[in-house]
Structure formats: C-alpha cells, structure tokens
Amino acid sequence: MDSLVLLILGGVIGFISTLAGGGYFLALPVLVALGFSLPVAYGGLWGAVFVSCVTRLIIFSRAGVIDWLNGITLSIPITLGTFAGAMIRPHFPEADTDAALLGAAVFSLTLIAGSFRHFFASRNNEIAHFGFIELTVFFLIGGWAGVTAIESPALLIWALMVLVGYDVVRANALKGLLSLVTTVVTVIILGSAGHAAWSLDILLAAGALIGSRTGAHVAIHEEARIWVFPIIVVALTADLIWLIAQALMR
Hints:
By secondary structure, this protein is mainly alpha-helical. The chain has one domain (2-249). 77% of the residues lie in helices and 0% in strands.
C-alpha cells in the first residue's frame, strides 16, 4: 500500500511541477505520515524533482518549444544566483530559514494572483526580450532556489511570462530548463556539504517520470494556459498551509 501511495504521490508531483509548478511541500506531510524523516523525505523529493526536470525537458525539446538561445543566456544569472544562495544556506539559523520560506510563499502567491491576466493572454513570442533588470531578477530567483534548497517554478514562470513576455507554452518549456539548472547546482553544493539527503525513493522518482511525461504532453498545447494559473495558486496555497502548520508545531 505504501508503495502505491509513493508511486501516486510521485506522479502528482511530476504532473503539477511540469504543467504549472510548485507543490513539493504538499508531498512532505504525506511522506512524514508514512514514517519518513524530513531528511529522507527531502531526499526522495530530490529524485522526483530531477527526474521530472529531465523528462519534461526532453519532451519540450522534441516539441520544438524551447528557446535555447535565451534559455542558455538566462541560465547564467540563474546558475550564479543558485550557487550564491546554496553557499549561504548552511549559515542561516533554522528559525530564519523557516521565516524566509513562509514570507516567500506569501510573496509568491501574492505576485502570481496579481498577475493572473498574463496567464490567460495570447502572446507573440517574437517580442520576448530581457535586459539588465530582468537578468537581475533571474539572479535573485536563483538565489532563492539555492537558499530554500528547492526549485522556484512559480517565480520562474511568472518572470518568463510577465517580465520576458513568453506565452504559457514557451514559459513552461524554459521553466523546465532553468529548474533543471537550479536543481543540479543546489544538489551538488548542498550534497557535497552534507546538507542534502541522498536516499532517493525509486517509486517516488518512477511516479514523477510518469506524471511529468503526462504533464509535458498537456503543457505543449496552447489550451493548457487555462490550467496553469489555478494549479499554481492551489500548489502555493498548499505549500503555505504546510509551512504555517510546521511553524505552529515547533
């Protein structure tokens, strides 16, 4: 029974993170309820995140919806920011990290909710552009991903749509590429420092493979934009509830 729950949970994580983003904290209470410690639960999530990122990237690439030139360019500030964030994370007191997580969840939810029109509008991807300000924002998002030790998909898709000007399909595709960058950089740095769990759950990763594959095939269609916004809001709300519950139990 536990194996089936883990497989389904991995599928939900892969689907949500691919089609919209977020929801990783939604999986933590389930894993804890199954008897896993938080370090082991995070280790399983690392596996699910990595498998999900690679799977969606392959499907988006085959569909021809990834702007590789801009993606590689945006990977530079994302990489630098993630590196900086992951390096300073071990020096954060646990209470400060919890406060930062809670504050950022509220900020992300407010930011997404205030930009809901962008998620339903048609875009001309040829006018997508970015400059110094946008690159700085991506650096900060990378820093946030490094500090929180988890990807920041909601902020990435918001920046790609609202600041850069991509439609939901191209933004989702580039989010997959940039999420892979933040995941790899964070795991390498925190793992080598002994701050990441390496006990990856095979069933969770297998579920993420199925879920992300399904989500990617849905996300490459323009009609997917009607689902992205509500899924992000629900996922961020679930994350916020989990963080508040954790703060109250300490």
